[in-house]
Amino acid sequence: MFAFGGGSAVGRPTSTRAGRAAALAVTVVCLTYAPIAVTELWPYASPGAPAIGEWLLGRSVSPEFVAEAVRDRIGPYSRSLAPLIVHSVLGGLLMLLGPVQLLSAVRRRIRLHRIAGTVFAVAVYVSMAGAALYLVRTPPEQAFSGAAFWIVLATILVGTVGSVTLGVLAAIRGLPDLHQRWMLLCYGFLMTAPLLRLEWGFLPSLYPGLSIQDINRVAIMHLGSLVSFGALLATRALDRRTTVPGLAGSWCPGPVLVAAHLAGAAGLAWITAAFLGQGTGGRRLLLAYVVPYAVTYGVIAVRAARARARGADWAREEWRLHLAALCLAPAFSAVAAPVLERTMGLDRLTALIAGVGIGCGVLAYAAVTVVSLRVLYGRELLKRQGASAAGREAVVTAPAGVPAAAASREGDH
């Protein structure tokens, strides 16, 4: 459900070794995680039932780490076990459908793409409904890994449902380029699940003795930025157009980008000071946020500069819009943290972690929204210009003696 065709420059990726390697890596992760997701919650319903994820984690980290993870989840999950099992099983199905959808779009297998896409959308809605029941029934402070993790999960849920809905609407309206962007963002949000499990596997070796709750706190510092960045890279790989209909000027001119940088720098300074005031744990969380953020910023900035150098106006515009959004993410987090602290009664560190954890994902969603509006505005502009030109032509070619107003009305029929 990533593209329904609609233009030779949209839907077929530029073939590069890096692109093929990335697509292969994502496919391997999805296929590997699918059975893990399907069996993950079986032991909670039937003790002793096989769970592939627990088995792998016990051997890659330690049985004690697995026991801690299970112990911390028993209480919160027991309130909503049936909806969570539905959520987990359908999550495994979505991992399998993702590569099918991408390959069917690229290979132009339209019928397969539409059938699998319908199944994909329904599975997203039902799976997210199960997750929503868990979140509604579980107070944030009693959730697995605490209130910050609950807030991040709720934000991912909203982003996933919103992006799949807008993707479906774009497909219905015959907008394959926008459909593709929203569905890639949706799948990016879904990829937070397998990527979190990967971090469970390698972060304990980087931070020995860290609890599962602290591991999750480190992970949510950058998961939102990583998955949305991956969705952007895939979007640009699948869209080779140098321009789009109605593209004129920029919605992100120099002054706007400068202002976004200044706001982002202020937000980043506030976040840095706040984390440094939290001791060793705060410095660890700051590092987990800043390093991926800096890498993401560097890649997007370079891609925007390269697009400008080769005269690819549309690519440059999209990269710049996402760059501005990324710059604003720390500013958003700096505002969100005290708001969450006051409205939800959180302690300062928990509110800070939650605010930073949702910033990049929320702003990436906003960037795709602005890109979509940019495309729709350009098409509407061309439509109005065409209607105006047709009206003028009707007036010019009107027979002698026919009033201009009447000729104009005739041209409208």
Number of domains: 2
Instruction: Please give the radius of gyration in angstroms.
Output: 24 Å
Distance between the termini: 38 Å
Task: State which percent range the strand residues make up.
Answer: under 5%
Helix content: over 70%
Shape: globular
Average pLDDT for all residues: 89
Helix and strand run: HHHHHHHHHHHHHHHH
Number of strands: 0
Helices, by number, come to 16
Structural class of the secondary elements? mainly alpha
Q: Which stretches are low in confidence, meaning pLDDT under 50 for 5 or more residues running?
A: 1-8, 404-413
**Biggest sheet architecture:** none
Describe this structure as you would to a colleague:
The chain has helices at 17-39, 42-45, 52-60, 63-78, 81-106, 110-137, 146-172, 176-190, 192-206, 212-220, 223-238, 254-276, 279-309, 313-344, 348-396, 404-412. It is mainly α. It has 2 domains: 1-240, no CATH class; 241-413, no CATH class. The protein is globular, with a radius of gyration of 24 Å. The two termini are 38 Å apart. The model is unreliable at 1-8 and 404-413 (pLDDT under 50).
What's the gist of this structure?
With 413 residues, this protein is mainly α.
Q: Secondary-structure blueprint of this entry?
A:
Layout (H helix, E strand, L loop, with lengths): L16 H23 L2 H4 L6 H9 L2 H16 L2 H26 L3 H28 L8 H27 L3 H15 L1 H15 L5 H9 L2 H16 L15 H23 L2 H31 L3 H32 L3 H49 L7 H9 L1
